[in-house]
Amino acid sequence: MKIIGRKREMDALSMCIESEKPEFVVIYGRRRVGKTYLVKEYFNNRFSFYATGLSEEKTKGQLKAFHESLITFGSKDKKQPVDWFEAFSRLREIITSPNVYREPVNNKIVVFLDELPWMDTARSDFKSALDYFWNSFGSSMEDLLLIVCGSATSWIVDNLLNNRRGFHNRLTRQIHLMPFSLNECEALLINNGIVMTKDQIIECYMTFGGIPYYLNLLDHRLSLAQNIDELCFKEYGSLINEYDNLFYSLFKKPEKHLAIIKALALKKEGMTRQALLQTLKIESGSLITKNLVELEQCGFIRKYRNYVKPTNEAFYQLIDPFVLFSLRFLEEKEHGSWMSYINTPSYNAWRGNAFEIVCLNHIPQLKIALGISGVETHEYAWASTKSDPGAQIDLLIDRKDGLINLCEMKFCNEPYEITGDEYEKLENRLFSFQKKTNTDKAVHITLVSVKGVKKNKYSNIAQSIITGEDLFA
Q1: Domain residues for 429?
Q2: What is the distance between the alpha carbons of residues 41 and 362, in angstroms, rounded to a whole number?
Q3: Among 39, 73, 238, 295, which residue's beta carbon has the most beta carbons within 10 A?
């Protein structure tokens, strides 16, 4: 078994195996994050029963695939099930058979249903049949471990996690599989024989995010820039159509989701729901609210509030590195290769935005670097258009110990040098924030720079300096 990272998730699966009661586990997360790989590797690809849903297949096709799995795992009935109730009835026969395969350590019967949302086709009885299977049988079978997963996160959340009918309080455990951290990305790259500096790994994360599938496509013989060219810019590149495939695999009608993402990509600090309605020229907000929730559940955006009045309407901000990269460079290609973008104004602007996203996705690591991993915190952004000039702060770490870290994030090839102009900008942000918020907490300027900060007469404005290496904690 070779699994990079995922210690928390493997611990959860271990507890389920050791459990003396029936377990119904749902694993969810965005496309390509490694859900299927985790389960198959953890159980050494040996199950009492395994079946997977099929993309863009109707009920008949789904039942045909399920029937093939039933035959593979010992069903004697060669006739295809007419509906899902019959399909689950035959599954019950398999797992109650004396010859059923059992997990060797704890003798558990492990049933793995992969890509579950795809099985639930229009006007089928799938949800009712699954509900009946678990409530009438599975929930009383003490040695049963049922694992379901799927990339369509919104379906999982709506039909399983937040369902108030058949599945309410029936799930025994949920595992939200997140993208890799920088530390886990580094471990995967080393395992694949890919040699990169930490700076390059950060830029790799800025391009592909912490998505294991994308990282596994990298060719160890090529540089990062060459790999980006091969995967994203060449006609045969494996990720040439990934942006569209990503959303169409998650949502049945992704047009609104795509429009929201494109709008948010234009403002790195994010937008309020009302601003989105105006930008997209939509009068009713009920649908956009649902779309925003779904995008947040999938990890593409984050919801945060302005520091001054946390109860006010929230901001929504794009935080998925690969989505940002795709919108900046792949949707409307100005150049035919990644090499042609490097050091252009659009490239430099993207690097600044993308590194801020890296930092937002590594708040725990920032807290470790600050020595406050055990301190309760809340993270905010803040902006004031009334100060002269206007002030914008992308990350505030508001600490319960009476201090606020005002974070400034810079991606530079050399140690960041604070000039006189930059010193004045930082002073203005600090002064504006203190004046407008009237905070009674101490405010420390914290610089997050990949290469650290160059010492000069202005550098003492920062009480804390966090380097790129610190983000790998």
Answers
A1: 370-472
A2: 27
A3: 295
